[in-house]
Amino acid sequence: MRIYDCTTFYNENFILDVRFNILDPFVDKFVICESGYSHSGQKKKFNFDINKFNKFKDKIIYLKIDKEPEDLKYLIENGEKKETKEDARVNAIKRIAYQRNFIKEGIIDASKNDLILYSDNDEIPNLKNFELENIKNELIYFKQKLFYYKFNLFCDRYEWFGTKGCKKKNLLDFEWLRNTKPKKYKPFRFDTFFSKNKYINVKIIDEGGWHFTQLKNITDLYEKLTNSEDHQEFKDAKKSIQEIEVLMKKKVIIYDHKVKKNEYKFEKEFKLKTVGLDNLPEYIKSNKDKFKDWIDEN
């Protein structure tokens, strides 16, 4: 039984290198999928360069998508395509789903009992004490600590379930896996018999890893925010690059994880907490001098 670690890619070389180093002792194959379009629909160059990751070259399966989904929504006015705000949100979700589901091309050689893990590349599972051979559950969810801007700036408002996994034989597609509910439902709950996102036979890994989001310089972070799934809402917030830089220095985020999916997310401010290095992966703790610019000293 092998482990396939699967993720999407935009231009996150720094965090991807951290991911590879943390997971290398446990993972058999890394599957990386990159699109030639951002989530906002902007044409982009392909940024992944396998030569930057020579240490892991034999494990990497790299996939490229050079077209958009066929079912995007637009208004046609005077022969030009235009997006409403709702279309922009829906189209971003469709682009993400299309990119995720393309990852199936990278696991063709996996056996039916191989474990397939999916995360965004800044969501890193903790596999250190992971007993793969004992996993009998249909789905596995990794409860992860959420960090912003620095490796140890902790957001304590929200339990993050980034990495999800299952055996290949149970995998419907990657978007389905991403959207399953990270909860163990009680037996005989009527709604689980017909649902494709609620399951009974699941395992939750409590010390399940780390979500290191927005560990970027201000220029790269602003580009991400204006091209992410929530790019239209971020544009509506009318935050300049200078204002985002101030938030970083104040150790504050303005994204509310607790609002419902269709509600406005960029409004309130939430303070982050500086925590000790004992909360971090061994690779980061062992290389704290290398990562000194990404560790908050409070």
Give an overview in words.
- This protein has 298 residues and is an alpha/beta fold.
- It has a single domain (1-298), classed as Spore Coat Polysaccharide Biosynthesis Protein SpsA, Chain A (Alpha-Beta Complex), CATH 3.90.550.
- Helix content is 21%, strand content 27%.
- It is built from seven helices and 14 strands.
- The protein has helices spanning 13-23, 85-101, 174-179, 218-225, 231-237, 241-250, 282-286; strands spanning 3-9, 29-35, 60-65, 75-77, 80-82, 115-118, 123-125, 139-148, 153-167, 202-205, 209-213, 252-255, 266-271, 273-274.
- The strands form three sheets. Strands 1, 2, 3, 6, 7, 8, 9, 10, 11 and 14 form a ten-stranded mixed β-sheet that branches. Strands 4-5 form a two-stranded antiparallel sheet. Strands 12-13 form a two-stranded antiparallel ribbon.
- A hairpin with a 2-residue loop joins strand 4 and strand 5.
- It is globular.
- The N and C termini lie far apart (44 Å).
